Amino acid sequence: MTIIRPLRRQWRWLSRVLADRMPTGLFGRSLIIIVAPMILLQAVMTFVFMERHWQSVTDRLSTAVVRDIAALVDVIETYPQDTELETVRRIASERLALQMTILPNEDLPPPAPKPFFSILDTALSEQITRQLKRPFWIDTVGNSGLLEIRIKLGDDVIRFFVRRSQASASNTHIFLLWMVGAAFVLLTIAVLFLRNQIRPIQRLADAADRFGRGQPVPEDFRPRGAAEVRRATVSFLEMRERVERSIEQRTAMLAGVSHDLRTVLTRFRLQLALVPQSRETEALTEDVNDMQNMLQGYLDFARGDTGEEAMDVSLTEMLARFEGEAETSGKTWSSDFSGDPTIHVRPTAFSRVLSNVVSNAFRYADTVKVHGFRNKKWLFLHFDDNGPGIAEGSREAVFRPFVRLDEARNLDESGTGLGLSIARDIVHRHGGQIELDDSPLGGLRVTLRLPA
User: What PANTHER family does this protein's entry cite (predicted)?
Assistant: First the structure.
């Protein structure tokens, strides 16, 4: 158990590191699924080639070289005369491609450390030991194209220089070049194929995102790609038609109800205008106005911000119009923005969000401060006030339609419970978020986060 626990911790740490380093996109992950087995297969093939083919070829070549050297050593031992040595040296150079030199009265150099991975060194040592059975010294580590072999013969040493290609396989670079070239070609084909297959998925995701924000889907958007992607695209288009039809029916229904009720309210207004003014008629007039505001809130909630085109607007200009409202109501107002205040929104819909938030702050607080800033991805707007605030457990509830908090401040001036629902729906359609928190001023902080 003492060994397993550290191994588990190491495995968890490695898993977390790999999860953090892995690409998050479908293209990157699909590419890894294709490339990883290919690299693994090529690694196995390389190992097999090095271990089998290269070793067998090197063994055969080394055996032939050592056999030639052994024959020359036998000739020198049989005919040790100096006149014959020149003939042996000439034969070794012209016929066997071996450069031979006699080093009289010398000893072998001290043994050099063996290389960590050298098939040639092992093969030559084994063949010299088996065929010559004499003390020897070899140098296969040098960067030159020659190998040096020294054989101890009595008091003398015979030195041979052999081309490296004579004793080892020389086609390794060709094999590696073919492997790298094949891998590059396969990777290029995989990248092109994956891009072609993933592009319909990206277009589907973009279309769904645009539809979720209330933006029109591109006109050339149609089912493409694999059968599963086409099926998902068709399902999305059918869902979009059902949602749009439902929204149109809901808007038409509420518009019809609103029109009929407004007609009745207009008659009420006319009748109240003909009646002598009194405390009772004033109360009835206020009720009619409240009903008018409720109807407008219902219609705004049903309509949303559909049909309005987005454009670049200045937040400082949109917030500046609340200065006059603050002076009129005797409130303390301040606003500032760090960076470029331009944002791409639907002006009327976004103005409705600002009006809802600021008007609510003016109703329940004496001081309102607005601070805005932006980074590379998001634009933030903080609305802080010194009002009573909203309990943390009730902050999510106020975003639901028709919810009114009787015991705390209500974010809907008309009293329909649709204020924050409309605001959040508009912000979500712009791809942003709206959140409630405690304000440094002691009241409520409303934060708008929108794509920069």
Answer: SENSOR HISTIDINE KINASE ENVZ, SENSOR PROTEIN CREC
The answer to whether residues 92 and 119 belong to one domain is yes
Considering the domain boundaries, does residue 280 fall inside one? Answer: yes
How far apart, in whole angstroms, are the C-alpha atoms of residue 134 and residue 217? 86
**Structure-token pair, residue 152:** 């101890």
Domain span at 255: 227-302
Residues 161-187 as b/e (b if ≥16 CB within 10 A, e otherwise) read: ebbeebbbbeeeeebeeeeeeeeeeee
CA separation, residue 438 to residues 341, 428, 441, 447 (Å): 25, 22, 8, 10
DSSP state of 217: P
Treating both helix axes as pointing N-terminal to C-terminal, what angle do 55-78 and 82-94 enclose, rounded to 10 degrees?
Answer: 160
pLDDT of res. 382: 94
Q: Report which of 326, 396, 336 is spatially closest to residue 367, judged by C-alpha positions.
A: 326
Structure tokens at 141: 């580590």
Single-letter residue type at 355? S
* Residue pLDDT, tens place only, 34-67: 888 888 887 787 777 766 777 788 888 888 888 9
Q: What is the CATH number of the domain that holds 234?
A: 1.10.287.130
Contact at 8 Å (CB) between 66 and 134?
A: no
Q: Can you point out the beta strands (E) in 237-339? A: 311-314, 332-338
81 and 16 co-located in one domain: no
Same structural domain for residues 433 and 312? yes
